[in-house]
Amino acid sequence: MEKHLEARLKFEIRQEGGEAFKFVCPGMRGAPDRIVIVAGRLWFVETKTDVGSLSPLQRAFHKLLNRLGFPVHVVKNIDQLNTFLNEVRTARIPGPRD
Q: What region, left, alpha or beta, does residue 17 occupy, with left being phi > 0 and alpha being psi -120 to 50 degrees?
């Protein structure tokens, strides 16, 4: 399920003219799965299964990003993905593709 959510996230974000890059942070474990960039905006997204939970390292990394002003969206199912996508669509800043 988690891989399907990530694939759907990538597809939908590309439909919006953005990218959902795999986030790898060498030397720091617990980073969110994806960095989503659309029209000058940036979001961090962690995908999990319905029963999945964040590890202590993930919670610590998310707390760091929150302290820096970047919320991390945890997406466990299609409804949460759609909620996140609605946020992306309503928060868009007009860019070169608009």
A: left
Rounded Cα–Cα distance for residues 73 and 96 (Å) = 26
What is the strand order of the sheet 72-75 is part of?
A: 19-22, 34-38, 41-47, 72-75
33-64 confidence digits (pLDDT tens): 999 999 889 999 999 998 999 999 999 999 99
Q: Are 37 and 18 in contact (CB under 8 A)?
A: yes
Q: Whole-prediction pTM value?
A: 0.87
> What distance in Å separates the CA atoms of residue 87 and residue 66, rounded to the nearest whole number?
17
The full DSSP string for 18-71 is -EEEEP--TT-TT--SEEEEETTEEEEEEE--TT----HHHHHHHHHHHHTT--
Q: In whole angstroms, give the CA distance from residue 84 to residue 78.
A: 10
Backbone angles phi, psi at 29, to 5 degrees: -85, 155
